[in-house]
Design a protein that fits this description.
This protein is of the alpha/beta class. Helices cover 32% and strands 31% of the residues. The strands form six sheets. The protein has a seven-stranded mixed sheet with strand order 6-5-9-10-11-12-13, with helices on both faces. A five-stranded mixed sheet has the order 1-2-3-4-16. Strands 14, 15, 17, 18 and 19 form a five-stranded antiparallel sheet that branches. The chain starts with a strand and ends with a helix.
Amino acid sequence: MRLERVESHDPRDVLRALRGAVLGAGPAAALGEAPELPRSVPAGTALVLTTSGSTGVPKSVLLSRSALTASAMATAARIGSGQWLLPLAGGYIAGVQVMVRSLVEGRDPAVLSGRFTPASFVHATSGMRSFEAGERVPTFTSLVPAQLQTLVDAAAESADVRRALASFDTILVGGQALPVRLRERAAVAGATIVRTYGSTETSGGCVYDGVPLGDTRLDVSDGEVLISGPSLADGYLDDPERTAAAFETDGDGVRWYRTGDAGTIDDGVLAVTGRIDSVIVSGGVNVSLDRVERIVRELDGLEDAVVVAAPHERWGQTPVLVVAADDPDAAERLLETARAAVAREAGKPARPTRVVRIDAVPRLPSGKPDRRALAERVR
């Protein structure tokens, strides 16, 4: 299968490439910043998506037509079919899947043009098709938590934003942990939220509100979440060692993806507790930075805070709180509030030891915090 790089980041250009790759005879599309790519890929490949996430090194994920369409069809079976709004970057799996879902349903997605703001979201929502052959067309969209936070904050003052949020049958939210308080505020604003979990290696979200989609299966081994099913990637392009480390086949011939996430399954419902590699040792005690961040983000004024690790002379490493704040005194008060909450829920060794003020949290194009940049800033 011939491989062609999509140089443009415009979602419309990505959509054109995906139309041929997923529904037509190809060529396969390459998205992301891979330095070198071969001219061809294995037959059946629709997409090579290069991503480094927020902390890792670049990896080029091989996704087949069957994996992408299986994911799209499983989503439709769970939440329904209709018109999708794309407010996400086209070069990441969440944005790609909005396009693939639309293509599989025979529709083009509505596209939010330019910078994401409450006003641009309202404008894009108002232009969506509402009726087809006299029947109402259900509407859907996909957001990252930072975008939802922006809209919920604006909805407190704007009836237009509230109407836009409430107009969607379902809003998928994924990419990172969704604070409970933010989800509750979104519900008050009229939004119907479904929390998603997945990765590029699973063709995007494959677990909705803790329950796997379609034929997706979940397991937990030594505390690590494992996923199997028809939406799994074929591996990493020209990287057999990394592929073998991330994808393994059990004695029954079932292929599993090792997510690197810690979690538990209770009554068939998955709870992800954080990245296995986000655990630091502080004063001889294991501390999960993800758990600390989840606790902190439930507090007033800290909904957008980020927790990173930093060296400490006495304890080795400790959590550090990064907040967007202008006032040093206000930042210190937020730190004390966070320390008290973390001590109650996770123990004293998990308390952030200091706060670092920044103008705004730097983000990757996917909407996730740029943790590498923040860690460098803290150090």
